[in-house]
Amino acid sequence: MLPTIALIGRPNVGKSTLFNRLIRRQKALTHDLPGVTRDRIYGEVRATEKPFALVDTGGLVMDENENFEQEILQQAHEAIAESQVILLVVDGKNGLNPVDEQVARDLRESEKPVLLVVNKVDGYEKEDLAIEFHSLGLDLIPISAAHGYNVPDLLERVGELIDGTGFDYNAYENAEEDAGLRLAMVGRPNAGKSSICNAMLGEKRFIVSDRAGTTRDSVDVTFERGGRRYTFVDTAGVRRKGKISDSLERFSVLRSLKASKNAQVAVLTLDAEDGVTLQDKKLLSFLDREKTPLILVVNKMDLIPKDKRDKVKKYFKEELRIAPHVPIVYTSAVTKAGLGGLLPLADKLWQECQIRVTTGVLNRSLQDAITRHQPPVVKRRRAKFYYLTQTDITPPTFVFFVNNPDLVKASYQRYLENQLRKSFGLKMAPMQVYFRSSHDKNKKK
How many CB atoms lie within 10 A of CB 158? Predict the structure, then answer.
C-alpha cells in the first residue's frame, strides 16, 4: 500500500481545504444518510514523484456528547496508529490553542515523524504568525491551503519524511503489477470476511475468530484462478467499538477505506442473520460516495431457512437501495454456495470501470436522451445542453456542459445518469457526473 499521511487537528483549522488542495479535487459536502457528515475522508496524492495516501481525520468522530478534547485525542491516537507520517494542522490566524498543545504532546511521545503545518499564513510577509508555534517543539512549515502558499514546499517536506520511514516505492510498483485484480474484503466484525477468503482459497490463510472485535494480523494473499491472478487485500485490525456508539467504528473508516482504495474492487460483507445495520449503511454510503467499485456479499445464507430466503433477499434489496447499481451476491462461506461467481463478477465490474466512450458517441446519446425527455422548466427557463464528454475512467466520469447548471434538477440529473448506464452497459460500475457552465454560454444564449 501507499504510505499514509494523516491530517489531524482541531475543527476549522483548514484540514479539509488542505486535503482538497493536495488531492486536487473537491469532495462532496453533503449526503442524505443521517449521521454521515464525514465529508472528506480519504484520497491519494499522485501529482508528485512520491505519491501517498491522505487521510483527513476531521469528522471521523462526530458524537456531540463526547468531550471535545477527548474527541480530538482519540483522532490523534488513531492517526498515530494508522499512518507513517502525521501532519498536525493549526490555525496561524487564531494562534496557539490548548488543544494544539495537548495533541502535540501526544505526538512527541510517538515514534512517528510529525510535521507541524501552520495554516492560514497567506504569504511570506505573514510568516511571523507561525513564531509562537515553535514552542510545541515540532518541525514546522507555514502555509496557506486556501491560496497555495508554500504547498509545493510542504509536499517536498512530506516526501523527505516518507524517505525517512524507509518506504520502498520500487517494491510498491512491482507489488501493484504482480497482484492482479485486488479485492478488499470490508465490513463489520463477524460478518464472515475471512471465512469467505478461506473458502475461496481452499485453505485457512486468514485467522478467523468468533469474537467480534478481535484484532487480526493477517497478510494480503495473492492466488491464481482460471489463469487470472487475484489478491485479497486484508483489512486486519478489527477493533472493539469503544465508547463512541453512534459512529462508524474507526476500523471501518481507516482500515477498510484504506484497503478499498488500495484495491480495485471492494467486497462489502453483510450478515444474513443480522440484516442491514446502521453501520453497514454508513460503510456502504462511504464506499458509494468514494465511487469505489463495489460488490455486496450477503453471507451466512445457509443459516436462513429455505422457505424464508426469498423474503430475506427482498429485504436486503430494499434496505440497500441507497446504491441501486451495486450488485448483491448471496453466499455461504460454510457451503461455498454463491462463491463461484464472485471473481468473474469482480472481473466484469472492473472492466465496466475501464470503459471509454468517444465524445461523438456520447453526444448522440445525449441528443437522444433530450429528445425523449426534455429538461424541465425551472423559474421559466429550461437548461440548454451544449455537449457531453468523458474525462476519466475508474470511475467513468462524464461532464455535461450546459448554459446554467442550476437549471438541471436533481431528478433530471438522475435521468441522464440512468440513460448513460443503459446506453453504454454501465450496470454495476460507480459513475461520476458533473454539470458545468459552458465557457461560451454567453455567445450561445
Answer: 24
